[in-house]
Amino acid sequence: MTEDRQATFGADGSLDTETPPEAREGTTDRGDEKGAHETNGGYNRYDVSSLLQKAVRRSDERVAAWAAWELARSGYAWNLWDRLNLYVVEDLRAGQEVALLVERYEELATERWEPDSWKGRLCAIHAALACARARSSREAANADECFRLVAERRAESPEGEEPPVDFPVADLEPGGEFDVIFDQHTGEGSRRGRGTRFFKTRGARVGPDEDGTESRRWQRLAMALSDVEYTEAELDHALAPVAGDDPWTEPDDDELRE
């Protein structure tokens, strides 16, 4: 089957319409019958799949591109895309836009074109390169494993005793470190009469970086025009970013209403 690929020209300027030799379906590049889980190049697809993830994790673009190409051309595109999608949640720093790129490349390769076609292979290479160039991090996987083990140790602690290790929030109780969470959006906050004033001056604060100039201008004007009469101290506090080293401490009501 002739692939839909761009034409090339030989050294003499003539149009080259021949495609590079490739494995026939069911055979390796050498023409031997492929074994179970064998790629066209004669590799074990589990090994190549593992190589792909380790390569993007270590930002080795050349190896990542080859591994993606080998899986795609060998009929294991499903394995390739599964591995790349796993990478963006297991080995990628949160917030990297490459996660959306991988999804788009997969959509093109599998829904618009054939996964092992020339265009499908280009998508595979693009996705692998995008992943290899992104900022790798094991933060999500490390957090999951850490929280899981803490939960086990916490559950093993005798009733009434402090566990040897605990979650970063320990117990969520009104009056504690995270008292600000008990606003009008929780049952406890509603019972305490914490309405709009409490939420606007405490629960809606951001940080540690200050919100944008326009956002702060809109917020101050909206609060000034609302039915709630805020003091200048409350307005200033609502717009001030939380402290980076202490994001949960909030002043008493009396401090803001003076």
UniProtKB/TrEMBL annotation:
GO terms for molecular function: DNA binding. It comes from the Archaea. InterPro entries: DNA_pol3_clamp-load_cplx_C. Residues 1-42, 186-215, 236-258 are annotated as: Disordered. Residues 192-203 have a biased composition (Basic residues). Residues 21-37 have a biased composition (Basic and acidic residues). Residues 247-258 have a biased composition (Acidic residues). One of its GO terms (biological process) is DNA replication. This is Uncharacterized protein. It comes from Salinigranum rubrum. The lineage of its organism: Archaea, Methanobacteriati, Methanobacteriota, Stenosarchaea group, Halobacteria.
